[in-house]
């Protein structure tokens, strides 16, 4: 399954809109074939088409990583642990299983992300607030753009 996602952040609150695309549609995008987006009937794909045409958007890099995901129902807490973050080299064709990549993280480094809706339960807050961890914003995409 391949999804196109649009992430937005307003006043620190994040949102995500997503739609599914086929492998064939994805290949068309990677080959700069965009006109089908306009006629797709999907609002997100049509928005992508408008942005490609007006802002000259184009694929830039591949972001590849391993993810462990957990859900804690109280507060709808989503916890992800990302490791082995890699950036594609010389190509943006993420469908290529032989795509050369480079590791962009320090040895043993992981990225812990905690998202929640209404509230962060005290149990989770206590677990993640330790003196050995630092809280910060981190963009895997921005880090990978330094390499490709």
TrEMBL record:
GO terms for biological process: polyphosphate biosynthetic process. It comes from the Bacteria. Residues 2-144 form the VTC domain. Pfam families: VTC (PF09359). This is VTC domain-containing protein. The lineage of its organism: Bacteria, Bacillati, Bacillota, Clostridia, Thermoanaerobacterales.
């Amino acid at each position: 399954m391949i999804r196109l996602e649009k992430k937005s952040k307003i006043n620190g609150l994040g949102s995500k809109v997503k739609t599914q695309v086929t492998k064939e549609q994805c290949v068309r995008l990677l080959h700069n074939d965009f006109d089908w987006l306009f006629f797709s009937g999907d609002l997100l794909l049509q928005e992508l088409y408008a942005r490609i045409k007006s802002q000259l958007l184009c694929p830039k890099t591949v972001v590849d990583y391993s993810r462990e995901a957990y859900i804690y129902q109280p507060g709808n807490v989503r916890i992800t642990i990302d490791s082995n973050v890699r950036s594609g080299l010389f190509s943006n064709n993420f469908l290529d299983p032989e795509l050369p990549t480079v590791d962009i993280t320090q040895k043993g480094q992981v990225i812990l992300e905690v998202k929640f809706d209404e509230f962060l339960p005290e149990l989770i807050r206590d677990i993640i607030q330790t003196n050995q961890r630092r809280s910060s914003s981190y963009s895997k995409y921005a880090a990978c753009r330094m390499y490709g």
